[in-house]
Amino acid sequence: MKDAMIQTPANLRHLLSDAATRLRAAGIEAPQREARLLAAHAAGTDLAGLLRIDVLPPGSHDTFMQILQRRLDHEPMAYITGHTGFWSLDMVVSPATLIPRADTETLVEAVMDHLPDRNAPLHVLDIGTGTGCLLLAVLAEYPQAKGIGTDLNPDAAHLAARNAARNGLSARCDMLCCNWADGITGPFDLILSNPPYIPHADLNGLMPEVVRHEPARALDGGADGLVAYRALATIVHDLLAPGGIGVLELGIGQDHSVPALMHNGGLQVLEIRPDLGGIGRALVVKK
User: Fold this and answer.
1) Is 130 assigned to a binding site?
2) Do residues 228 and 261 make contact, with C-beta atoms less than 8 angstroms apart?
3) Entry's HAMAP family (predicted)?
4) Sorting pLDDT into bands at 50, 70 and 90, what band is 55?
5) Considering only CA atoms, which of 259, 244, 207 is closest in space to residue 124?
6) Where are the alpha helices (DSSP H) in the chain?
7) Which domains does the chain have, with CATH numbers?
8) Would the annotation count 147 as a binding residue?
9) CB-count exposure of residue 54 (10 Å: 0-12, 13-18, 19+)
10) Using CB atoms within 10 A of its CB, is residue 29 exposed (0-12), middle (13-18) or buried (19+)?
11) 87: annotated binding-site residue?
């Protein structure tokens, strides 16, 4: 009966209630908010604008039904809407890259504390840039800085360039398709990376949104989750300028193993900064 009610334009309150019930049954967290976000996107408005709507127009109703099914299939909301916020920026996203997470903002906070001169003409390298979120957030905070973002996936590099243009930062960065930092010459005052760090055996235990929809190559850290860090230890050491810092994202429980790899690579750990959940998230190193 509910499915029949929700197939044609209906009172928005009833439509949202039915959608929330279906989202809850699918195991989606905060189903009422998710239903409202989907309806707002379908109607081309925001949550405040949705308050002024009693019935979705036929075209918007059809769109709502389509994107509701996508969310019921655990497609991430950011892929459905096509964008998400990171730091002070609005980032376009696609299945070519991971969706930027709030935990990753911990790296930007660490950069700002360790490099307090906001007018410094920093030369920045972001390895595995994805959407470009880390590099672009730093460039937004340091108006004299310039940078390079690299990604093995050409679609990701193209998306990062699109985000640079979207946020008015194209003139101060280049997004390149390459493996790690192949062909890149330093030195750099700041090296950033949010590398793949999930142990291969743990991938299938991640949330359905991640397992089914986000790119496995951007998550898979090999048998022990540390493959990328072994490469990064050498790259950071070789490309870091005197007095420069590297800031790398860590996975859960890696705040002991990764610092040891960095030490073996000739780097000194300055800080392991926790995210809001208390997990050691941002590793700060220097030569």
Assistant:
1) yes
2) no
3) RF_methyltr_PrmC
4) confident
5) 244
6) 2-5, 12-25, 31-43, 47-50, 58-72, 77-81, 105-114, 133-141, 154-166, 208-213, 227-239, 257-264
7) 2-73 (1.10.8), 85-286 (3.40.50.150)
8) no
9) exposed
10) exposed
11) no
Q: Mapping DSSP to helix (H, G, I), strand (E, B) and coil, where does residue 12 land?
A: helix
Structure tokens belonging to residue 4:
């029949």
Does 132 carry a binding-site annotation? yes
In the numeric block, which tokens belong to residue 112? Answer: 């700002």
Percent of the chain with pLDDT over 90: 89
The number of CA neighbours under 13 Å toward the Cβ of 33 is: 4
Retrieve residue 264's tokens.
């073996």
Q: Is 194 annotated as belonging to a binding site?
A: yes
- Name the pTM for this structure: 0.90
Was 196 annotated as part of a binding site? yes
Q: Indicate whether 70 pLDDT > 60.
A: yes
* All residues at 6 or more sequence positions from 132 whose CB lies less than 8 Å from its CB, including other chains: 91, 126, 149, 159, 160, 161, 163, 164, 173, 175
One-letter amino acid of 26? A
